Amino acid sequence: MSRRRQDQLLADLLRRDGWATAGQLADVMGVTPRSIRSYVSAVNARVPVGDAVTSGPAGYRAGPSAHRALDARTEATPRDRLHRIVRVLLNAPSGIDVHDTAAQLHVSDATLDADLARVRSLLAGTELALERDRDVVRLHGSEEAERALLSRLVHDEIEAGSLLPSAVPRVLVDSAIPHTAVAPFKSALVHELQELDYFVNELAITDVLLHIVIAADRVSSGRVLDTESGEHSAPPEVRELGALVGRLCAEHLGISLGAGDRDHLAALLLTRVVTPDRDTTDVARDGIAPPVLDAVRSTVERASHDYGVDLADDAFVLRLALHVQNLQRRIAQQSWSRNPLTRSLKTSYPMIFEIAVAMASGLRERLGVGLHDDEIAYIAMHVGGRLERSRSADTALTATIVCPGYAEMRELLRASVDRSLGTSIEITRVDTRVDPDWETIDTDLVLSTIDPGRSSDRVVRIPPFLTESDVDRIQVAAARRRRARRLTRLRDELSRYFSAEAFLSPLPDAGDEAIIQRLADPLRTADLIDDAYVDRTIARERMSSTAFTEALAVPHALRMTAKRTAISVGVARGSVAWGASRVQVVALVAFSENDRGAFQTVFEQLVEVFSEPESAQRIVRAATSFERFLDELVAVIDG
């Protein structure tokens, strides 16, 4: 039974807020419900209490010991054994004896030889090499490269997003660092960084904390980083932070760091975790290189034009430029920064993430920096912060207050609504009649102190004096209307862009790039796109997977060059591989320049529909033909 499949099941359940049926999990993983039940049994067997996954009438959900089961490691699988061998090599500068190691791992010499071949593959692209002299094998490379490999192993062993400070010592096998010392060290580090007037990025600090613990552990074994030109050649801020890290390591971890280690860890802090608590203009004037600032400004202007959003703000450009300059330094050090919010940003804010991908593409063209999803997610956080105000204004609903009676009472009611709901609801009309013409009221919501005489999902009956529960009811109604408004726009757009000729079921499990080619065929036949558009779609996919939910992938090109907007859809029986994920529906979207305004509606709201597991499964089960697929999609949209 696949350990990887069990871990995938656990990770899926940990990401969900509630229950999932065996059928839903089976569809996502591309297996049978019977296999899901087997995986649940195997996962629960990893922990003494057997409560990693709990079951009930509604299906399965993550239990109290889910994280513990996910972190439970054995050496029964080739992957686990591979990691164990690498750890042994990292801890043995003079090398290991292949016969002794095979005996310790309870495998044959031939099996160990095969594992060593996999170690060589793992080292591809690093500065490390595996050397063998008869029966002795050793790693050859710098100490910094060995630490980077150890960090990579740890990240490979934990589910993305679950690396918390409490997990750092637990995942470092046989570490000399006391487990109980890590959390106090982190608290002291954050406190003192703030005392030095630095902003601290809590999302990135755990990853740097991992590097600090690795460094302290390696130093305790006599493996130190050398500094070529001496401690005092480092910039003043590096020396200052290096001294701080060195002092805290001595106080909390009992390890004395040399100048090389202090400078290295200080550089990690400066490029990943902290920024000076000063005015952004001063920071830019003092430290941002002109080529970086020019590249960021050009990239922002292009994204603003392409996506019709307002990003052209000097303070935003300067903050992003500072981030990009730090990013360049991380790339030079081959030291990437993880973002535990990557998956949720991608699923919940696909349009913002898409703008970030386009900006990452522009930065790659102008500065030669290639980014993965975690780094793109940090750009998305900058973009989201800039767009939050305009997005809030765009989603504000109009409302009419119907309130016959005293003028003073109406004024108090309106003031209460503005005070409690002013950011999400705009009062555009007040009707004082006892018999208003309900048909002429065309606002999104009607807040009425009198009975409208008939039921309507946009009318909220309220008392003249609002209570907290009344505000809650209005917010629920507003959310319902806001979603209905978005999905109505989506339904209108989709009816224009779908066609029976561009529908494929079942979708072949041939890999993402082959599926893109297959779904592009009907659009090419209709002369809507050319081969260059398909190539750009594949290039976009290689930058960052377009599997925005566990059910749906939306491949597309970054430039809107289709002759006419169209969507080619494929529905799988079960699921198909899509990068590192599996999806059930693939919608290849080809947008034209004339439909720029529809991009956000179709792209973001289509993702929203398929982000709800029950809705996604309804559509997938019904999609035996194009007509049934479209009917069920519209039915889901209409609620």
Automatic annotation (TrEMBL):
<protein>
    <submittedName>
        <fullName>PTS sugar transporter subunit IIA</fullName>
    </submittedName>
</protein>
<dbReference type="Pfam" id="PF00874">
    <property type="entry name" value="PRD"/>
</dbReference>
<keyword id="KW-0677">Repeat</keyword>
<dbReference type="InterPro" id="IPR016152">
    <property type="entry name" value="PTrfase/Anion_transptr"/>
</dbReference>
<feature type="domain" description="PTS EIIA type-2">
    <location>
        <begin position="496"/>
        <end position="639"/>
    </location>
</feature>
<dbReference type="Pfam" id="PF00359">
    <property type="entry name" value="PTS_EIIA_2"/>
</dbReference>
<keyword id="KW-0762">Sugar transport</keyword>
<dbReference type="InterPro" id="IPR036388">
    <property type="entry name" value="WH-like_DNA-bd_sf"/>
</dbReference>
<dbReference type="InterPro" id="IPR011608">
    <property type="entry name" value="PRD"/>
</dbReference>
<dbReference type="InterPro" id="IPR050661">
    <property type="entry name" value="BglG_antiterminators"/>
</dbReference>
<keyword id="KW-0813">Transport</keyword>
<feature type="domain" description="PRD">
    <location>
        <begin position="287"/>
        <end position="393"/>
    </location>
</feature>
<dbReference type="InterPro" id="IPR002178">
    <property type="entry name" value="PTS_EIIA_type-2_dom"/>
</dbReference>
<dbReference type="InterPro" id="IPR036634">
    <property type="entry name" value="PRD_sf"/>
</dbReference>
<dbReference type="GO" id="GO:0006355">
    <property type="term" value="P:regulation of DNA-templated transcription"/>
</dbReference>
